[in-house]
Amino acid sequence: MALQGSSQSESGRHEQIISQFLLKSLHIILDSRIPSLSRHDLSGELTPVSRVRKSDKWFNLVLGERPASLEDLNFWHRNVMDPMIIDVILVHEGPSSSATDDLYTTSGVGVPVETVIERWVVQYEPSGTVPPQQVEAPASYKKMYQKAIVLLRSLYSIMRLLPAYRIFKQLSSLNQTYNFDLIYKVSSFGELLSRAEEKVMKQYSFAPVEAPSGRLSISLTYQPTLSGFNLAPSTPVPPNIITDYVGSPAADPLKVFPCTDKGIPATSFSFRRIHSPTSVPFQRPHSWSSGIHRVAPFKQNHPLCGSPPAHHTPPVPCHSSSPPDIYGYRIQGYRPPSHKKGISFDEHQLSPPFLPSPSPSPPTYFSSGNPFRTAQGTETAPVSIPLPNMGRNSRYTIPNSSDPNRHSLPPMSPRSTRLDLSSQESPSSGSRSFRKTDALRSGELSGFAQLYSGQKIFKDSKDDSGRFSGIVSSSGSPRVGFSRSSSRLSFQDDLDDCDFSYPFVVDDVDTSDSQTRTPEGKEASESTSQAFPSARKSQDAAVGVLVHMLRTAPPLRQDYSCYSSQTSKSEFEGEVGSGSGFCVPRKTTDALEELKSYREMKDLLLSQSGTRVIKKEEAKPTAFVG
Amino acid sequence: MNCEVCQLKELEVEHFEIREVLRCILHTIVFHRALGLVRPKDIDSELFEITYVQCGDAELEKKIEEKIDQFIGWVEKHPNKKSQATWFSNKTERLYWEQWYINLNVAQQPKAHFAKSHHSKVVVDPGECALVERSVRRAALEAALREVLFQIIKFVNEKRDHIPPVPNVEGVSFPYEITIPSSSDSSFGMDVIKRMLQTGHPTMLS
């Protein structure tokens, strides 16, 4: 009985060590490759070792708080016999595929390409035969544990010597953004690498750690050099001047826009390309990634969530509540007292495997954020607009929070909000655009593609990454430009302050009879709207008024069929009332009257601006005289 | 008790590079042999594009720096000598179970040519050549240093059976010695730092 109990505890301890070994290796690898998951404390003030959580003390290597994604992995990767394959993938720019890309991009970037630069295989390889005396040896797990300590130290060191570490360091820098990113994929099977990849990649294997019934091994396939990739800091895109800006619906919700199918060129982006069929499969039934879009075949015998398998429920001996104590040496606070065995054991990662799964299905798609949330949220409308300037990857966030038209955007969905706020906790990669694409990929992509087709996709002026910004306005109305909106709104305020209302302000024009709007009137309004972005004072407005009037003024010659008095306000109508005879040949008197009206108008304008008109005074006596 | 010996590849270093090279090597060795609880600290080398790992133990770091200072002092007093330092000896009760030999070939400091030349043009050219040559040597040294670090990792992984049991301590788990060899005619003498831990009867992992 005692022997059975001890062997059971031994096997339980072995399982625990193997499981923790897998988890620790994953933590080391991701911590050194994925900037968003890296928990390096840059401040230099580290928690003292004595105050480290017990769960972090496994293998005597304190790495800091584990991201939530790793905790979920611990729950997902239930079968310790399955290999854990971690792909570190470089997302970089490929060559431009077609000339049409240039129409939609301002920087001429290429298609995003994903290349596996490292593939880590961490596994426990059970041996065929197990000598019974080894299984029952009380110290067998201790030897295994100690050797695993050394192995993990080597893994930690070598992570920093491989070429990919340099890329990670670049991405981790706070003051620069790049046109590439590192993402990861964890699965229990490895997709075949392409022949080209296999040719260039090298192998490296650590010496395995012998275990009583197998061995722990870590092997690596990696790209020995990354100089062939186009990895460069991304350049900020200069603001794009929209020459045919027709205003924002936010300024005038009642404004009827003309048909915009023909007129709105997209300023960027290859965000649409991200959704191309070649790169975006939506199903990932059986592995866990931070944005890779490869369909993984479903593995039939993979242990599902739900009740924990039998091998995870060994009885817990009192001394197994912490990472194994070797030969009775103790340090203060490290080994819990024996009466706390049950509680301490739970602390060491045994409880997560026993957590009931929120979903009876196998982990289908760990796209971004919490996989459980993802699984539950796949049906929601993924209007995910990341908050700007979040962490180091602000390059992937969309636009400018100071954009005054932001209020026209729909509110963020709770899921997307959660994703945005948990930038450090999210298990996904450093690419927030990929997180966004994950959100979209969960089922609403086609709808979005339709929604955004024909609309301008604008970009935050602070966005440096060009192609990867993935900025899509979720506004329901076409948004042609944003750069002038703020000044335009201020102009609106100026207009409100003035008693003088200008006929060619888009709002006012809109309220007039649209049927009588002429192309000229529209052109005038457009031209004046162009002129107005810089108008901040009524003097400029006055000038604009005058310009408009001159433009809409009937020619001195014949053919006044296009002349319309409707472009003027009622104040002017009295002045030009005589001009309402559209097709009447004009006489000199008419012209003189019109000139008089213009003059009065001018005087009025000038008086508005505070300038005295001397000529008016001079004209009076002449008027009496004449 | 078998004593594993690791002879690291020889590195050709200039005088000002000794410190960084030794930091990389020593800290890497210590990180793999201080098997107590550690919080690893990544350090970017000042001279090379290499990131090595420290144990995060301030006392250990101080000891290593002191030893490096002593070695540099020794090298200054003994030019034209290759230094094969028995740098790190893990031992328990004076029973060495592992020895590491770090071999450095310290290059002579170049003579100052420019001070004697009367022609400015002649001065510039040797300087530029020296810079180019130095950068080439620096790159070669970096590659060689990286190889040495890989060599350490490989040795550490392959030889695990001779390691004594790891006590439940923080940081350095085993006593160690850092030794600088002295020539016979040197008055510098041997400087040995010993750090002993009260250990029980050593039992070996087989």
Explain this structure.
The complex is a heterodimer of chains A (626) and B (206). Chain A has 626 residues and is an alpha+beta fold. Chain A has a domain of 175 residues: Cell Cycle, Spindle Assembly Checkpoint Protein, Chain A (2-Layer Sandwich), CATH 3.30.900. Chain A is built from 20 helices and 8 strands. The relative contact order of chain A is 0.12. Chain B has one domain. Chain B is 36% helix and 22% strand. At the A-B interface, α5 and α6 of A face α1, β4 and α3 of B.
Descriptive terms for the model:
heterodimer; A: 626 residues; alpha+beta; Cell Cycle, Spindle Assembly Checkpoint Protein, Chain A; 20 helices; 8 strands; B: 206 residues; alpha/beta; globular; disordered C terminus; ATG101 (chain B); Autophagy-related protein 101 (chain B)
The general outline of chain A is: elongated
The greatest interface here is: A-B, 38 and 34 residues
CATH architecture of the domain at 11-40 and 54-94 and 111-128 and 137-222 in chain A: 2-Layer Sandwich
Tell me the span between the first and last alpha carbons of chain B: 11 Å
The number of helices of chain A is 20
